[in-house]
Amino acid sequence: MARALIFPGQGSQAVGMGKALADAFPQARAVFEEVDAALGQPLSRLMFEGPVEELTLTANAQPALMAASLATLRVLEAERGLDLRRDVACVAGHSLGEYTALAAAGTFSIADAARLLRIRGQAMQAAVAPGAGAMAALIGAEIEAAQAIAEEAREGAVCDVANDNGGGQVVLSGDRAAVERAVALAQARGIKRAVMLNVSAPFHCRLMAPAAQAMRAALSDVAMHSPVVPVYANVLAAPVTDRDAIRDALVAQVTGTVRWREGVAAMAAAGIDIFNEVGTGKVLTGLVKRIAPGAAASAVGTPEDVAAFPTF
To answer: CA 206 to CA 196: how far, in whole Å?
Structure first.
């Protein structure tokens, strides 16, 4: 058996995230305290108490999700004897979750990951004027059909594939008018469901180029170490271990497609048969079950989940 740890992206945040772990385990509390100190902000209080509108802001949600995942990981290490280098074949994360995966694998410190995600969230929010961009989910569309719809909808504007999530779920991103045209085209072509998403910016498309430049600058100033296990990069759908390749992939990820379907399929083809989603929510667990139905997939984010996790 070979195990992968996977880490959730934006959208999985919820008020109360991490609180039960913090109440039960000092290792979780230590992670939240470290993130609070790194950001100079009581982010953990916002995670535990809300309000949800403030937690959902990109600049808060991104480091909050990372903190919840790394707190869970530290508890698994302390309570269940998990050793990443010994017990895990590889790690991966969805969008911001890639930073979490890298911190889990030792490439970034928790404090640096928190600061990078704060910069990333702010830069992505600032890249496009409010209301100018949009995202839409095509449900029941395979990647080839989604790409064709995006291309036809552009008409000189930006409409890119942001996420190829698997299970017939593809997300488009770009200029609002172009994305709205894509939704209309999808509906006309019989795509099962095409809906505009309630997001604050058009992530993972060419409009995010200013944010990519900001991340290149930020990443050049941060200490990076080789990960103790391979990290599957979103834009490559393949494992990376070289620090320069990791940095380039993180920069490309800001404007590029999150190739989650291909990444999970590649992990399964490489022999991964256990996927554990570490942190808040179960979104990735559901996607894995559709992409790699022969693999076991489960989420770990509560004290009860920790108790049910195997002992190493």
So the answer is: 18
Q: CATH 3.40.366.10: which residues of the chain?
A: 3-127+207-308
Residues annotated as catalytic are 95, 204
With cut-offs at 50, 70 and 90, classify the pLDDT of residue 200: confident
pTM of the model: 0.97
| Three-class DSSP category at 219 | helix
Does the domain formed by 3-127+207-308 have CATH 3.40.366.10? yes
How crowded is the C-beta side of 135, counted as CA atoms within 13 Å?
A: 20
DSSP state of 312: -
Tell which residue, 288, 4, 9, 10, has the closest CA to residue 166. 288
Structure tokens at 77: 């290490």
DSSP characters over 70-102: HHHHHHHHHHH---HHHH-SEEEESTTHHHHHH
Fold that domain 133-199 belongs to in CATH? Alpha-Beta Plaits (3.30.70)
Pairing between β-strand 3-7 and β-strand 274-278 as defined by DSSP bridges = parallel
Contact criterion met (CB below 8 Å) for 45 and 13? no
